[in-house]
Amino acid sequence: MTTESSSCRSELFGGVLIGIGVWAFIEKNRFYHKEVQTVYDIIFDLSVIFFIIGFIIFILGYAGCIGALRENICLLKFYYITMIIIFLLLVVGAVLAFVFRDKVKQILVDVLQQNLITRYQDDPDGQSTIDWIQEKLYCCGVNGYRDWNSNQYFNCTEDNPSPLRCSVPYSCCRDPDVLTPGVPNILCGKDVLEESGDISIIYTIGCVDAGIRLAEKELPIMGGIVIGLAVPQLFGICLSRLLEGQVMDQRARWAQTHHGHHQ
């Protein structure tokens, strides 16, 4: 019953995530339409991510739930083999990320600069994401606050007509709502990219380094989260494998008994 109930709950949860993803995608495209040009357009689109994760959880939940209820060997095998593959991919990915952490960090920096920094203000999803990260991690830019020089609205070139020239997003500011409480001043970081700019009013550390520092500081919590995610997966794999064995034993006994009656 544990396998059945947990799988059926997963199926329901997956359906909810699919619904949220579809709703968010429709609502977002009512006001802003973004063409998918690269895989990063999908990675940084939360509505699509919700849909994909929800779909995977729904399919696995369906296979586990129906497989357990109907004692279907094929569905049970699909469930635990897929779970094993996902678990191994996560473990291998984590090991490779640790071994090649410098390379991974550089790739992460390049991807974030190309898809979040340079497209800030042109992509509402990306803008909300980078603002949230900078506010929560007390950071600015990917490598540092000068990353914003690569954005067409903030760069410090003399021919830049933007009123945001030589500034950084309000989420970089230490006190963005100093003028009106609760209302951020989008010009709070004005002129900080100038050589003589006052950088004391903004965070200067890059968000990648800030994220790494936070992960190292909260290592026990991160470890607990990883274990909390891994244990249910392993538990589900073991239970579904056990149930498959029980079903096959019952079928073998039934076949043996049925064959004996015919003799």
Automatic annotation (TrEMBL):
It is a multi-pass membrane protein. One of its GO terms (cellular component) is cytoplasm. It comes from the Eukaryota. One of its GO terms (molecular function) is enzyme binding. Keywords: Cell junction, Cell membrane, Cytoplasm, Disulfide bond, Glycoprotein, Membrane, Transmembrane, Transmembrane helix. InterPro entries: Tetraspanin/Peripherin, Tetraspanin_animals, Tetraspanin_EC2_sf. This is Tetraspanin. PANTHER family: TETRASPANIN. The chain crosses the membrane at residues 7-26, 46-66, 78-100, 221-243. It holds the Pfam family Tetraspanin. Disulfide bonds join C140-C156. It is found in: Cell junction, Adherens junction; Cell membrane; Cytoplasm; Membrane. Belongs to the tetraspanin (TM4SF) family. Its main location: other. GO terms for biological process: protein localization to plasma membrane; protein maturation; protein-containing complex assembly. The keyword Chaperone does not apply.
